[in-house]
Specification:
Blueprint: H1 3-17, H2 22-27, H3 32-44, H4 46-59, H5 63-80, H6 85-94, H7 96-102, H8 114-124
Amino acid sequence: MHRSEVVERYWRFHALSTSSVRQDRLESISYFDAWEHVEELAQSDPEECLAVICDLAEAASSDQALAYLGAGPLENLLHQHPDYAEAVSDVARRAPSFRAALRCVADSALPDTEGGIELRRLRDEPPG
C-alpha cells in the first residue's frame, strides 16, 4: 500500500470507527487494513513507520485525531524501538502537529535514554 493511501485509509478508519452512527462504525472495518499496516510497521519497520506517522500528523483533522495518533502508533513505535527516540525528537522539533501527537504518548513508552529525556522535554513544553 502506498503511503498516501495508508494515510487516507487510516484517517477514514478513524473517522468511521469513532462515529456515533452505527452504520459508519460497521463500515470502518473496510479500512481496518490501514490501521493494521501502521501497527505492523511499528513492529517491523521503524523508519517507514516514523515517515508514515509524520504524514498522518500532517493530515490529521483535529486535536482528537492527533491524540489518537500519539497514544497509538507513535507510542507503539517508541515502545518497540526506543533507539528511535532521537529521530522522533528531530521530527517533533520541526513539526507542530507531530509534537501535538507526542504530547499524548505515555511516559512509560519513553525510553530512559538521552533521546527519551529530550522527548519528555519536548512533550512537556507548552504549545506555541
